[in-house]
Amino acid sequence: MVAGDADDGRGVIPRHGIEGIRHVRDLRWNALLFDEPRPVLSSAPVNGGDVMAERVVNLCVDGPDVVAACDDPAGTFASISRAQDWRGATVGLMTGVAAANAGIARETHDDVEWLVLATVGFSNAHRAGGPAVENAGPGTINVIAASSLALTAAARAEALGLVVETKAAVLSDHGIVAAGGGTATGTGTDAVAIVGAPGEADTPYTGYHTVSGRCLAAAVIRAMGLSMEAGRGG
Q1: What mean pLDDT do residues 89-111 have?
Q2: Where are the alpha helices (DSSP H) in 60-120?
Q3: Tens digits of per-residue pLDDT, 39-84?
Q4: Cα→Cα distances 199→119, 154, 219, Å
Q5: What are phi and psi of 182, to 5 degrees?
Q6: Domains of the chain with CATH codes
Q7: Cα–Cα distance, 72 to 51 (Å, whole number)
Q8: 230 vs 5, 6, 17, 222, CA distance in Å?
Q9: pLDDT, tens only, 188-199
Q10: Contact call for residues 30 and 191 (beta carbons, < 8 A)
């Protein structure tokens, strides 16, 4: 949980977060719920691509139902939506990392804010261009990043690329080695989701040289670090 947040027994309710977004945690998933549909660009297995959605959910599928969940991801998330009485589109990510081990971070500067939720497992860590090696244990690095800015489609794509680069930098800084050798750049099952603000898109850039990009990278670094710390047992 992020310092300054409160848990009411149903989930984590940010006291100071992006207006219109609420974080809720279940035993098996973390969700960012939106007051109104928002543009989401993602590599998620459910409703991936560039879509309008009401929420993004990161589900832990590490358990006896893992095969069934992965064989029918759309059905799995449809069942969660029915149980929660959710309407509209859900962007769904899957991981082997426990929901309780999510790291959440916020970075703000002036009128720019990024809220990042990350779950980090690297038992199946790989290096780009290296061999695909199977490993058991909780894998997958999932990052959900929500902005206070109305990002254009290009800016969302730029943000997604920046998250991937930042993820690789974090793994390098922590000395994570790929299963096939060399410094890991990710895992074989990672996913990223970028959430923009609703309304007319008016922010065309979010790269290294922008306040938005710097806030995003800082939030990803912190959220990943918190998840890695939680995975080690604090």
Answers
A1: 95
A2: 66-71, 73-84
A3: 999 999 999 999 999 999 999 997 777 777 778 999 999 999 999 9
A4: 29, 16, 24
A5: 85, 170
A6: 6-231 (3.60.70)
A7: 20
A8: 17, 18, 22, 12
A9: 899 999 999 999
A10: no
